Here is the input.
Amino acid sequence: MQDTIERRIGIAAEPDKRREKPGQSAGTGDRAAALAQVAVAAGRPNLFVIGASKSGSSALHAYLRQHPDIAMSTEKEPCFFVDPAELAQAWPIMARRACSHEPGAYLALWQGRAQARYRGEGSVYYSQAPARSGVAARIAATVPEARIIYVVREPVSRAIAHYWQRAKEFQERLPIERAMRENPIYRDTSDYALQLAEYRAHFPPEQIHVFAAEELRRDRRRVLDECFAWLGLPGVDYAKADLAERHRSPPTSRRERFPFVRILRDSALWAGMRGHLPDRLVGKLRAAATVSFDKQEVDEAAARAYLAEYLAPRRAAFEAMIGRTMDAW
Here is the structure.
């Protein structure tokens, strides 16, 4: 089985030196063994919400978990199918969590619900190619029958929201227009044709369901009913409170007060301390280490204009792929 998984996900005996990064946490053999263990597990996940980042996947996770036939992972974004070295570089906090790389810990995210018809998880890093490489191939090799849900958002607004998320987490220090031009993560993640092509290379179209975050926000019951019907499930009689809006981004952002703040926040030392500190103290430390500001103070016009021009043909390509226009945009 290990040899089969290795060949199906394209792991060669000699690793691609272009993809090698310092600090890789697992060799190719270890990684293939981990995937092989998940591939034969009876309770492996078979439903993946792949993003896009800042498109409402957290809210969708909460809505889906209310269905009696769907068990969503207890960790919302385990990132198990992301290359360990790429994850360690992009999100070291998650890379240290066992569920991101240890098969037993990953499968334990559905403990007690392994018999549910669908076991789902949602990791937005799954649709950030080429920065997160080979994800679709790994999922397809491990769970070929997987159902894929891809939630997208008006691409310019999504990229801007992505910038603010990364800036708040001290991952982006460039001014907004320079960041859009110089850091491809924003453009590539909003290039939905690029991301969808990654999955269509490994899954038939009928195993992939695409809709817009704006559609979900405007008519949650209809969009969710369509999603459940695609999964072959009955609908859910949601109470109004069950479909409340979730995870609205705040109007403020923050930046580091001192240059070492991100290093400390992402360190193993802080990870070990964080769970033992009261939330009130953590809040005080965060306030002392960061500077808060209103995002409206930042002029986004040039960044938006650049993105609109760059992404226009990519949006057209995406709409051609799915066979409909995104009227919600």
